[in-house]
C-alpha cells in the first residue's frame, strides 16, 4: 500500500525510527509520501527522505496554517530550494479558515503562488483545505490553473464539492475519518469514482478506529483501506490495487521515482 500523506519526520517516528519502519513494512506499506509544513520542518523532511529514498517521497510547500507575517520570506526560501531539489509534489499547500482568518488574504496569495510553481515544474499539488472550500474551488476553477492536478488531502467537503473537484481532475485523499462513527465522509464521496481516490493516514494525526485518540501510523492504513473496500463492496485486494495505481499515476505525472 502507498500512504500518500504522513508526517514521518515528526519526532514521534524519528525517535524510534527502526521500530516504526519495521512496523510499517510488516503492515504492507511500500511507500509513504511526506508533506511539508514550513521552512523549519523542511530540513527534517529532506534528511529523512535522503536516508530512505525508496520508502519516503518528499513534497515541498508552505502549509496554510504556517502562513504568518514572514510568509513572503518562507516562499522565497522554497522557491530557491525548488531550483536544486527534485520533489514529488508542491505540498502541503492550501487554505485553512478553521482556527483563524487573520491571514486569509496571505493564505490565498501563498496558495496561488505555489500553484504557479507546480505548473512551472510540472508537478501536482497536495492540498490542505479546512472550512475554505468556496475559496478553494474559485481558485482552482481559474483559467490559469486549468492544467493543475493533485490530491485534496483529508477530504472534508460535501458531496457537491467532491463532484466538482473530481470533474476538475483532482483526486481525493481518504484517511482515518472514514472510520469514525458520526462522520459523513462516505456519503460525501460515495459518487466519486474509485479512480479519483487515494489512501492516506496523515500520521501521527487522525488515527482510525480503534486507535482514535492515539498517535496514528501508516501501519494502520489497512484499516482505512478495508473500510473503503467494505463501503464500495469490493475486495480489499482490488481496492488496494486501484488506489495504488492512482497514486502511481501521480508519481508518473511528476516523473518522480
From TrEMBL:
<dbReference type="GO" id="GO:0016787">
    <property type="term" value="F:hydrolase activity"/>
</dbReference>
<keyword id="KW-0479">Metal-binding</keyword>
<keyword id="KW-0378">Hydrolase</keyword>
<dbReference type="Pfam" id="PF01026">
    <property type="entry name" value="TatD_DNase"/>
</dbReference>
<dbReference type="InterPro" id="IPR032466">
    <property type="entry name" value="Metal_Hydrolase"/>
</dbReference>
<protein>
    <submittedName>
        <fullName>TatD family hydrolase</fullName>
    </submittedName>
</protein>
<dbReference type="InterPro" id="IPR015991">
    <property type="entry name" value="TatD/YcfH-like"/>
</dbReference>
<dbReference type="InterPro" id="IPR001130">
    <property type="entry name" value="TatD-like"/>
</dbReference>
Amino acid at each position: 500500500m502507498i500512504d500518500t500523506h504522513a508526517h514521518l519526520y515528526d519526532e514521534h517516528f524519528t525517535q524510534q525510527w527502526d521500530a516504526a519502519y519495521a512496523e510499517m513494512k510488516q503492515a504492507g506499506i511500500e511507500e509513504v509520501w511526506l508533506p511539508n509544513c514550513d521552512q523549519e520542518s523542511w530540513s527534517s523532511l529532506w534528511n529523512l527522505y535522503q536516508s530512505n529514498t525508496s520508502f519516503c517521497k518528499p513534497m515541498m510547500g508552505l502549509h496554510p496554517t504556517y502562513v504568518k507575517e514572514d510568509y513572503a520570506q518562507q516562499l522565497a526560501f522554497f522557491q530557491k530550494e525548488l531550483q536544486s531539489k527534485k520533489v514529488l509534489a508542491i505540498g502541503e499547500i492550501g487554505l485553512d479558515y478553521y482556527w483563524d482568518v487573520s491571514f486569509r488574504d496571505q493564505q490565498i496569495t501563498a496558495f496561488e503562488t505555489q500553484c504557479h510553481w507546480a505548473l512551472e515544474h510540472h508537478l501536482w499539488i497536495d492540498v490542505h483545505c479546512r472550512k475554505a472550500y468556496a475559496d478553494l474551488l474559485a481558485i482552482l476553477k481559474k483559467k490559469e490553473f486549468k492544467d493543475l492536478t493533485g490530491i485534496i488531502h483529508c477530504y472534508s467537503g460535501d458531496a457537491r464539492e467532491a463532484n466538482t473537484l473530481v470533474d476538475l481532475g483532482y483526486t481525493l485523499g481518504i484517511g482515518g475519518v472514514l472510520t469514525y462513527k458520526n462522520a459523513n465522509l462516505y456519503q460525501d464521496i460515495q459518487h466519486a469514482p474509485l479512480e479519483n481516490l487515494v489512501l492516506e493516514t496523515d500520521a501521527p494525526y487522525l488515527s482510525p478506529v480503534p486507535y482514535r485518540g492515539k498517535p496514528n501510523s501508516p501501519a494502520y492504513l489497512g484499516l482505512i483501506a478495508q473500510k473503503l473496500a467494505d463501503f464500495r463492496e469490493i475486495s480489499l485486494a482490488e481496492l488496494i490495487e486501484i488506489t495504488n495505481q492512482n497514486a502511481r499515476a501521480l508519481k508518473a505525472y511528476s516523473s518522480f521515482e
